[in-house]
């Protein structure tokens, strides 16, 4: 099966798909991270780094999202770095098992966990999304304390934005 693109990220379901897709990328592109999502079917989708994760997923809900870097080791491709860095979906660090399963299904070798973890929290006071740095659970927008457990429901992001823009 060859990589598919339906206005979303390229669907990668096998090493053959990945090799075909990688062969279409320039050496400069392959040296940078790519945008990825793991769709609800547990499949990996890839897009250029500057692509929005939501566009890569075709606007659908996902099991995981972030940035991923590949390296050619001997005669095979492997993941050298992978994160959950996606401000479109704000996935929790607990999304790693879904990402690992998607990579294992192809199969592509990968690290044992995210090589860079981003902690996202939604402020319960102002509804803004925050990146928590150095375990400082304080909203950068309003100064309120942030929850210590993940609370960003990506399906609510668009609803929240609409209601704020309409003054609801």
List keywords for this structure.
alpha+beta; two-stranded antiparallel ribbon; five-stranded antiparallel β-sheet; 24% strand; 168 residues; disordered N terminus
What's the helix and strand layout?
Elements: E1 10-12, H1 15-23, H2 27-30, E2 34-39, E3 44-47, H3 53-56, E4 62-73, E5 76-82, H4 96-105, E6 119-122, E7 129-132, H5 154-165
Antiparallel strand pairs: 1-3, 2-3, 2-4, 4-5, 6-7
Concise account of the structure shown:
The protein has 168 residues and is an alpha+beta fold. It has helices spanning 15-23, 27-30, 53-56, 96-105, 154-165; strands at 10-12, 34-39, 44-47, 62-73, 76-82, 119-122, 129-132. It starts with 9 loop residues before the first strand and ends with a helix.
Task: Explain what you see.
- It is a single chain.
- The chain is of the alpha+beta class.
- Helices cover 23% and strands 24% of the residues.
- It is built from 5 helices and 7 strands.
- The chain has helices at 15-23, 27-30, 53-56, 96-105, 154-165, and strands spanning 10-12, 34-39, 44-47, 62-73, 76-82, 119-122, 129-132.
- The strands form 2 sheets. Strands 1-3-2-4-5 form a 5-stranded antiparallel beta sheet. Strands 6-7 form a two-stranded antiparallel ribbon.
- A hairpin with a 4-residue loop joins strand 2 (34-39) and strand 3.
- It is elongated.
- The model is unreliable at 1-7 and 160-168 (pLDDT under 50).
């Amino acid at each position: 099966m060859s990589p598919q693109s339906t206005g979303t990220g390229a669907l990668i379901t096998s090493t053959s798909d990945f090799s075909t897709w990688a062969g279409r990328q320039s050496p400069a592109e392959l040296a940078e991270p790519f945008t990825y999502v793991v769709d609800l079917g547990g499949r990996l989708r890839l897009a250029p780094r500057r692509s929005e994760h939501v566009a890569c997923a075709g606007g659908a809900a996902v099991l995981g999202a972030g940035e991923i870097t590949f390296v050619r080791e001997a005669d095979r491709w492997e993941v050298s770095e992978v994160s959950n860095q996606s401000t479109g979906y704000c996935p929790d660090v607990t999304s790693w098992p879904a990402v690992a399963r998607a990579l294992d299904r192809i199969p592509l070798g990968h690290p044992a966990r995210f090589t860079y973890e981003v902690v996202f929290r939604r402020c319960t006071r102002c509804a803004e999304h925050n990146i928590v740095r150095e375990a400082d659970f304080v909203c950068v927008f309003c100064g309120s304390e942030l929850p210590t457990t993940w609370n960003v429901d990506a399906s609510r992001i668009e609803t929240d934005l609409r209601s704020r823009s309409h003054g609801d």
